[in-house]
Amino acid sequence: MEAQESQPLDVAAIREDFPILERRVGSEVTPGTIGKDDPDGQQIVYLDNAATTQKPQSVVDAISEYYTRYNANVHRGLHHLSQEASIAYELAHDRVAEFIGASGEREEIVFTSNTTEAENLVAYAWGLDELGPGDEIVLSEMEHHSSLVTWQQIAKKTGATVRYIRVGGDGRLDMEHAKELIGPDTAMVSIVHVSNTLGTINPVSTLADLAHEQDALIFVDGAQAVPTRPVDVEAIDADFYAFSGHKLLGPTGIGVLYGKKHLLEEMDPFLFGGEMITKVTFEDATWNDLPWKFEAGTPRIAQGIGLDAAIDYLDDLGMENVREHEELIAEYAYDRLDEFDDVTLFGPDPGPDRAGLVAFALDDVHAHDVASIMNDHAVAIRAGHHCTQPLHQKLGVPATARASFYVYNTREEVDALVDAIDDARQLFA
Ligand code: PMP
User: Fold this and answer.
1) Is the pTM of this model over 0.85?
2) How far is ligand 1, taken at its centre, from the CA of residue 282, in Å?
3) Which of these three, 315, 334, 367, is where a domain ends?
4) What would the pLDDT profile of 203-240 be if each residue is shown by its tens digit?
5) CATH code, domain carrying 422
6) How far is the CA of 283 from the centre of ligand 1 (A)?
7) What residues have CB less than 8 Å from 215, skipping those under 6 apart?
8) What do you get for the CA distance between the two ends of the chain, in Å?
9) What are the pLDDT digits (tens) for 398-418?
10) What range defines the domain where residue 415 resides?
11) How much is the mean pLDDT over the chain?
């Protein structure tokens, strides 16, 4: 407890807002165990936050209040409930704009399903029109599949070429290589802000400058950045910036695409249908104002309201405090895991360009076996390629185990992880 007192966040108080963290689970899962406590089980240690975070009661309550008090479709009805729902949904866009420093406000904030859909939106709506043979799309070797696969496919459709900025042995981008690759043929640079496998914080504003010097655009994948540190899209000078609500205490089913207003105005819609039009005839249609032009059909109303509540919660904690807490926990985890000779840690050493997640491999033990033994200890971590298969090929491992931390995690939980890893080592020794 004493160790907690000097920390940037009051973790004990935060944990009270997350009833799920009290769950006691056994290692076996059947349809009958869903949502039930196992009296003989152990209290869950949730260290899979880079995959998705838990939700505070205030987020659950905001969604529940929408459904119980003002559920209606937005923008369609003049009736009372529809107006309330519309206001709440629109204000959620403003809240996101403020949170990430978008001065164009709601017009620059498009709600999507997730980061993946935001990537696809830009790749299709911008890429299909703007790219052709001779154009280059510059990615990095540490891109998530949501970016890598999407741009690969758009390149195949348009005849453009994908080039990859090398990742060095230290887990950082080779910036000399970036300078070589980003040239007159570059049309788009798409870069992950914080790597979900290596934890590297990439110099996205330097990359934005390099892209803009060549009249190229930059798309930044902020899925792991926005949840964990203050982000200002205008300070970065990102043309597009995307993230997912579910990784920052919000519900699933909502993501955000920020785009500079003039770019979103110039782009054609991605999906067509209701809500995104102004006038339709049998021959043609015209498009609604931003951001609705990019939100076809009934949008993610409950999810947008839930995301608004999640941002309220994070704002109350203070994103600087969130960042500091996560880095302290991750550094502690890194140091403790580093004590084992047979554990390999990936990504840069703890420091200013390293975020709060730790991917590791245990000699001669497959990551899935590691995760399964963790599960016997009720420690939830992720094992696999974390949607970065080419990066894993480069690292020379088929899979890694990954522990990732958030505002409610404690040092004691890191100790539980380390004890469980020690067990795994002994079991396979
Ligand atoms: N980019 C990064 C860096 C991620 O970590 C993730 C989620 N693992 C994504 C993109 C995709 O997010 P989503 O699945 O919510 O679309």
Assistant:
1) yes
2) 39
3) 315
4) 999 999 999 999 999 999 999 999 999 999 999 999 99
5) 3.90.1150.10
6) 39
7) none
8) 34
9) 899 999 999 999 999 999 999
10) 11-49+318-427
11) 95
